[in-house]
Input
Amino acid sequence: MSKRKPKQIINASSILKTGLVVGFIGFVVDYALLPAWNIHNPLFWILLAIFITLATIIYQYFARSLVQWSKYGYLTSLLIIGFTIVMGVLSSEMLNAASYQQQITISSNLSFDNSFESIALNKIPVVDKSTAIKLGEKQIGTIQSLGSQFYVNPKYTIVSQSNDLYRLANLEYRDFIKWLNNRSEGITSFVKVNVSNPSDVTLVNLSEGMKILPDAPFNDKLMRFARFNHRDKIFGSYAFEVDDQNKPYFVVSVLEPEIGFFGGLSAQGAVIVDPVSKTSEYYDIADLPQWVDHVQPTEIAWSQIDNWGYYINGFFNTLFSQKDMIQTTDGYNYVLLDDQIHVYSGLTSVGADRSIVGFSLINLRTKEARFYQLGGADEYAAMSSAQGQVQHLGYMATFPVLINVEGIPTYFIALKDREELVKMYAMVAVTNYDAVGVAESVNQTYQAYIQRLLALNMIDVDIQPTNQREITLISKDLIVMNGETYLVFQDENNAIYSFKLSLNLKALFIEPQTSIKITYNDLDQDVIEVLFIEIME
Output
């Protein structure tokens, strides 16, 4: 006669203790890791498996016995881990190379001259991120009550406002004690830097302080606040933006998989957090307010561009022959097109050195992408060419900004000294990095570059900058600045002009009361820099 196994009784006390311990650990892990409670988030499944296993082990500890049904807990955890691995493989690039290659829609066969609008010289971005950081710290350092309590968040966001580009940065508490002392009022300022004018740095004051911030402790931390208000959203990166009235917001990208169960994450909308009122709301891309510039995380957008060029002939082509493969160059920058922020980078053949086959741009709001097929120098070759023009001064080139100069795709580069101060500027043609113009001001750089393009027959001699007017020269004088001689003159309306004589020595002999045609780029200056002078018959 066989003996029956003793019936195992579930211990209610052990269950209660297990629930309390696992609940506490779960709260701590959830508070620290902030996972999305979303079935398309692999971390959700991994944590679920871990906690089922943990609960089983802890129950056995409190029950002081190996409970027979505990094997089902371990089995469930293994099945969840297996499911996660299988779904990950089924969503992988190896099995879905064609889907990853086609995930982003790119407009190609575009004419650079027609679709890439020219930028006025006074609108060219000259302030890069590192310069903006120095300008922002200097700005709050002049105000003791701010500098001792707060610092500028180095994660500057570039935004468009009234057809201008600005770099914005919120302030952060210097330490935990500063947070305790100021959290009730919040932070009532942020930094705003005009990227086209290093002297236009503003500390914008708010009537009410921002309480929700990226680096604040506990529930005042941006991503924790957003997570607890939107438990099921898969978050990407965040951006600090303002509306047309300079009211601050944080825009947190919301991602969803587009390939398989986990793969091909792409932004489908955003959570907009009001850090002053401590409220948030989710918007699909189509419903976002017009002032929002950043929805697509730059790193995800570029990974999709890389996939577009990388998987052109399937996955296994990337391992062996690598036929027709192209990839983005190292680095990117931002341009303003149609009053919206675009990020751009060159595209180069895999294994190519210092050259591009074209470049692409992505709208960071809509993910609309463009590809311009164009052979030439990559950004780093252009930087080396610009540095070579001033190698005796030891200046270092910043990463270029792409601009359109008379239909010629051009890299605009700032040249800095060892103290990170901008000393000169350079323009380098994408298609020919021997076409370089270098000078101490943007207008002078433009003049030198135009002369170089004319000398190399890259533009028609009849093509001139568009801003022209006829004036009568009333009075004139000569001044010397930085070793260069300038002709300074006035017209009949008392407007003041300057012209670099080395561009045309004949201008020295223009007599008062002579009618001349001048070419310039910006009238909104106290002294208008003239690019060309023509004496009227």
Notes: The first strand starts at residue 106 and ends at 107. The mean pLDDT is 89. The chain has four domains: 12-90, 105-124+319-463, 125-295, 467-535.
